[in-house]
Request: fold
Amino acid sequence: MVDQAAPRLRGTIVPVTPFQQNCAILWDDATKTGMVVDPGGDVDRILEAIDQTGVQIERIVLTHGHLDHAGGAVALRDALQARSATVIPIEGPDLRDKFLLDSLAEQAASYGFEARNVTPDRWMAEGDALMLGPHRFEVLHCPGHTPGHLVFVNHAARFALVGDVLFQSSVGRTDFPYGDHAALIAAIKTKLLPLGDDFSFLCGHGPGSSIGTEKAANPFLR
Reply:
């Protein structure tokens, strides 16, 4: 999943929830410290995957406030802290998604299952950095799908976690009351496409892709 230009950065994907959301576990291969990105649910499956990697999770990271990306964050944090007796912070998204994180339980109930509301230990904003051992991820604010959606960019690995902003041959939904299609396309064109054609990315659902592939073939970007 991660470009071999940064051989110490490793990752695996755990599809979770009926929405088949790509929960990512990333870790530094030398120190075996890791982070979980967008644990939307199915916490037992995420814990099993963590056990298989043998890594020590040091933080949980959220790209945005939708249920399928954040619904399992509190349960996962509690389970990890019970195992290690260390504090596992929840970081992100941007503060503008607070209204979504405050209504996760309500969102879940409408689909017939349970989730807990999330109050992150750290809200993030464009210009911040997310660190995983020696690996630095630049934080970009890419609104449109949600007002506070963030993207995490690792320039050394030529790799980005884009959540529900950009997909293989598609882009994020904006048919929510708070959605903004023009803002989404602007963020993709001004912040993601300039990263370079060789940049690979993991999206929130389905297979990943590269910036070059989407620039050439994504019908929403023509």
Q: What stands out?
A: Helices lie at 43-53, 67-70, 73-84, 98-101, 104-110, 181-192, 211-217. The chain has a mean pLDDT of 95. The CA atoms of residues 200 and 210 lie 4 Å apart. The two ends are 27 Å apart (CA to CA).
